[in-house]
Amino acid sequence: MEVPVKIGRAVLICHDSEPLNRFGLARWMASFLDLVAIIEIHEPPSRMRKRIWREFKRVGFWRFMDVLAFRLYSRGMLRSLDRQFEERLLRSLETRYPDLPPDTPVLVTSSPNSAEAEQLLRKVKPDIILARCKSILNARIFKQAAVGTFVMHPGICPQYRNAHGCFWAMARRDIENVGMTLLKIDEGVDTGPVYGYYRANFDELTQTHNMVQNMVVFDNLDMLRTKLEEIVAGTASAIDTQGCPSRAWGQPWLTSYLQWKFAARAAKRAALLKG
Description:
This protein is an alpha/beta fold. The chain is 47% helix and 16% strand. It has a single domain, classed as Rossmann fold, CATH 3.40.50.12230. The chain has helices at 19-30, 45-59, 61-96, 115-124, 139-142, 165-171, 209-218, 221-233, 254-274; strands at 9-15, 34-41, 106-109, 128-132, 148-153, 161-162, 180-184, 194-198, 248-249. The longest helix has 36 residues, at 61-96.
């Protein structure tokens, strides 16, 4: 059997609570990269409390109630659909890509910015890091990659920076900008060089925003592999985003979710009548 040629040394940073990344994306990476380590984040409850407080300060009391209402709605009405979708997708990835080598180093840590994470990165000397995490990485972490540290941001940047870009594009009826951005991390928040935009065919009426955010990544793995190979080889060029509007978004609101679904149903009826 021919042994695939690995194009560079890579590290995956992800959460223990997201098996699609921890197991599915890791398998994909190892199929063409030398996956020298996985940094698995087990966040303490205090980290979630900080995020909640930060969002509260950002949007204010009444809008935060809107955020909380969507969280409750999502937990009660959408979570089981999301989990079924993710389980099917993970099984598909496990069929498509071989299992990880059993000796792949895994560091379990409470933060990707921890001292032990930095120590590991200095030891394994990655060419590239893929960060699939909610935390903003310190420069002493993301600069450990010789080529760069990259994120698969769920949103088209710079128009939809920060969190849940796919949700907000759909809620605003900006369907052409529902997608994922492959960008290189810099000192800002989703402000680094952009290396690609990736989209997917989705159904607004039957699929949740979490499904769509997974689709724009996992439906494009072949194209992402090609792009990362170009990046490691030094032949990829960044996309010029100067002059594009830029805005940072936050957590989904229930009011925006209901407006989005109402508009999606109206658009579907209009299309049926027109057709």
